[in-house]
Design brief:
By secondary structure, this protein is α+β, with helices and mostly antiparallel strands. 28% of the residues lie in helices and 55% in strands.
Length: 148
Amino acid sequence: MARVHYDGSFEVDKSRDFVYNFLIDPRNIASIIPGVESVDVIDPDNFKVRASMGVGAVKGTINITAKFTEKKPPESAKVVGRGSGMQSTMDFEIGFRLEEPSSGRTKVNWYFDGNVGGLIGSMGARVLDPVAQKIVQDSVEKLRQRLS
């Protein structure tokens, strides 16, 4: 099993309410993550995602089931989920905390914790980490652009 952790922050010229409402819509988040093919919102807290990706020579589709386990408008939220596919599994937690350093400006503090098992997990951090870092960096940059 390989464990990954990423975190960071950025600021945008949008109100905290606007940013919070954007971030709790799974369709908005799915639109910024590379490889996402579909999002099925089951109810306000539960959703499913289908994504294509590749890690090293392993390429395929991952099916993810996720749930908001915490929502504190307009301050923070947390999602936990599980994905499977490509002879691998992934358990993860994603969260954010919003600050308003000045009127109409929001600081987004975010984190991602994941455990990857199976074939991809057995590749270890040397193979997995650069791929995961690229996905996270691209997604955060797209998020920043969408919120600007």
